[in-house]
Give the backbone structure.
Amino acid sequence: MRREIPLIITGVVGFTYIIQFFIPHWPFNIMEHMLTDWMLIIFAFAIWLGVLNLMKVSLDRISKRTKDWPYALVTILGFLFIVIAGFFFSGGRRFLDPGTPFDYIYQFIYTPLSATMFAMLAFYVASASYRAFRARTKEATLLLLAAFFVMLGRVPVGDAMTSFLPESVRLSKFADWIMNYPQTAGQRAIMIGIALGIVSTSLRLILGIERSHLGSD
Amino acid sequence: MNDLIWVAIKFMFEKLLRIDRRIIFLFVLIALIVPLFLNISQHIAISPEVRDIYDSLRKLQPGSRVLLAFDYDPPSAPELQPMAVAVMKYCFKHNLKVIIMGLWPQGPLQANLAIESIKRDKEFKDNPPIYDKDYVNLGYMTGNELVIQGMGTDIQRTFPRDYLGNPTSSLSVMKGITNFSNIDFIFNLSAGYPGTVEWVLFAVDRFHAKLSAGNTAVQAPQVYPYVHSGQLSGLAGGLKGAAELEKLLGFYGKGTKFMLSQSFAHIVVIFFIIVGNVAYFATRGKKKK
Amino acid sequence: MYPTKKALLETSKFIFLLLSFLVLMNVSAFCAVPEDPSYGAPAPPTDLVVRDVPNDAGGAIILHWDPSVDDVEGNDKFIGYEILRSTSPDSGFKVIGTATAGSTELTDNQTVDGKKYYYIVRSLMGSSIAEAWPVGPVSSSQQWFNLGRINSFIALLILSTAILWYIHRARRGDTLFIRKIAGLEAVDEAVGRATEMGKAIYYIPGTQDMDNVQTIAGVTILGRVAKLTAQYETPLDVPVSRSLVMITAREIVKEAYLNAGRPDAYNDSMVHYLTDDQFGYAAAIDGMVVREKPATIFYMGAFYAESLILAETGNSVGAIQIAGTAMPAQLPFFIAACDYTLIGEELFAASAYLSKEPKLLGSLKGQDFGKLCILGIIIIGSIIQTFGIFDFTSIFTVQ
Amino acid sequence: MEFGFTFSNTLAAILTIGIISFLWRDNPLYKLCEALFVGVSAGYWFVSLYYQNLLPQLFDKLGLTLIITPHADVKEGALQVLFKQGRFDERILYIFAGILGIMMLMRLFPNLGWVSRWPLAFIVGTTSGLYFTTYFQSNAMAQLKSTIIPLNSINNIVIVVGTVCGLIYFYFSKEHKGVLGGAAKVGTWFLMVTFGASFGYTVMSRMSLLIGRIDFIFSTWLGLVK
């Protein structure tokens, strides 16, 4: 029973979605909406699990006084800080309005941290280019060449370097061509392949052929 | 003697290959900071995909309704914010009504930042955009692509209230708008999921809306097949796309300003790729010998 | 000073315009007869066609008209169209929507199924209007099948049948050939190396939730890796960014250790949650990698921008890295910074190849059948299009 | 957003520099920023998901919000409709979503853990059903359609040949030998050009992001660049 009921749920819900795609008639049209809302609700519950786990891991670190335990305390305090500000001092559901404490934390703590994390990628890109991008094989050489032309073609410098050529064959035009033709073709092969892969995985899940995600009894 | 030179070169390159990556980081940092203080004008070539956006915008009559979908958060703002500002300025200047919404919770906040900056702009000081006359902000809605699907049937039911809590039906900009068939143009600013792909799949493929998009450069390559198939009419990719839009629409801003740093950065990366490969082949060639 | 000839001409032209405008306003108020377009009332739109929106859940009627002759580019006075609706052909028309100049279509989705409606579309130019005759009656209804999607329906039916048939064959014991996948051959070797070095293996199942098929494929491959680590007694660490993934991954690792006969070696802390946030997650793993220097790192699943941070840091501590993702934007980094990379669909093929499970092998063969069909269609279709025999592409229109 | 050397901007700048300092090496400031980031981001999503998801989708629809506090913005939920007007409102079905959500939390009790498979199964079913059709339609059918083009120009031939050969690379049923091997080889070339182009675009994107942070430090915070 512990496995059968989940399999039935997956099958019924999956089929409902497929049916509504082809049959627009009531009641399938409203079921899709409702089931999607339900999924979002379950997701919202699931974050509790994650948060509780994070708290448990951090508290463990503190109680066992492992190396760097004070940082675990910072994590907990940071969490409590924004949660308390969000729930009790930011006007309830208008919590994202400009001027609330939640918005302040968002703008001056969360944003710089997350944006800088993202921006760090610029350094890693440069370093990866240097250390990992080698023309070892014909394929790698092609990857490098394409990257080279696109990178130069997408900044004004590329055109300045090829300014002796007629306008229509300058680097920026060549980069545009790579994007529009060979790149589009390769991208398309990937997209079609992925789409077929998704169809077959979904089919297996819905029919209960694939059940590894449910684990064992 | 010859061998000695080889050994020396090999030693040098091997040293170079094991170069501390912090030196690379430093080069990148310098390449980005220095140009901010320089003032060199660059010629920006216009790509056909960006011209498509411009052509679509130019065809719109005054009073047309433009939907701006803000599907990004602050980390992607450097690329997308300049596009948002340029398109909004064009709309306000040509009296196009702007409807703002977001599938990312932070999107409508970015829209507010863009409007704030437009209000500070000299060009709009005398004639600042007015809420509910020139634009409305419907805010964020959960549900990802299902929000788009809902809008295809009824926008006002999908967004019952605007960002400020006013009923959508009471807004003058929203008058007569039921679904995408009353929207003349959609411009989607996207940094991932949900974003341009979902807008294409739902708004264009299912409801035949007219859609252009501004994307982060990371996402742009995946979207090109849709431009080519005609599902998407126009695409601006990354900072270059932003600079092109600024040039075509006639509002120079951060997109153009940052292009110089961008150029320097690309040159640094290309330089490192070349050096890395030269060093790699030099040391490998020696090994073979 | 007296007026020049030109000024006189301009003034008289203005007065003439004003007069004719006033006259036309009066005339158009009584009957909407199209008049000289440059001066007065606009021409009405023509050939209004109204019908139920096909293939929908009802509640909507679509209107289509030919634009007014005044609706041309450059005519700034032409504002657009107003759409009026009534339940009677003679009276009670109310404006239900507007459309800007240049548009020829509007969907009225405020209808009650089965009720009869009449529509009028009128042009607006300056302050004058011109109406076309009412058209109707028409009513909306909901349909039992979306005929616009019959092509997808048939294609999906064929594809699904092929997949199921191959799965059936695989279960019956038929050998189904699958070519070697380079990245996968390296899995055993990578686990072996970690064992020799006495260091840990990290397994990163991506940053997306269990609703992502790539995550599911990633977690399937984790089962195989966990089986190997159980046999070799190599420490395994699986940091995850979603609670659901944590639950699933724990189940799978536990089962693998059980099957390998080492349930004692398993404990829940092998799979642990860090944070839902993409970069918070990347930063935390970064720290772990730098501090603990694992021997082998697997990245299997759906990744976004964090891919590069992870792969580069892993590379810098000299770990063997094997990646697999179907995220096109992240593939270049994995290809560049990892030792082996499963490209796109190879990730899905990998779980089949590793487990040799009939269901996975069968569906891979089914997908291959789909690819073969698509290849054939593209080649034949392109030839047909080249010689312009007929519009072959119309068969594949999506709605 | 503020301009200039204010407290808030200084705070943001310190956090920015703290993260960047990791480039030099792992250090206490970075660890502090990292730990803070993990906590704050978990909290950010926790609060956001409650207000933007749980509250409007579940509590408002059922009417639980009104039971706890009277709220002007919230209309009657399904419970009020049921008990006050005695009418069945389909939103009452959302109670199942709540139950599934709570079942998810049963994971916290080891011997009730199996209960959480129900909501998990629900989520897997929903996404499988949704993806099964949408992906096929838009990424297989629509792309197939736009690849069927007359072979009357170099560009069109590039598109068709590239797509066909790329697909052959992803064909797993035959060893890549002979003509098939040749085509698969050409396919990998196209894929590599695609990845190279992707890489170029990504470099562009990442650099732009860093420019954004540097601009924050030098223009917004320090006011050195106009």
Notes: The domain at 48-252 of chain B is CATH 3.40.50 (Rossmann fold). Chain B touches chain C at residues 21, 59-65, 75, 153-154, 176-179, 181-182, 184, 192, 205-206, 218-219, 221-222 (CB under 8 Å). Chain B is about 55% helix and 10% strand.
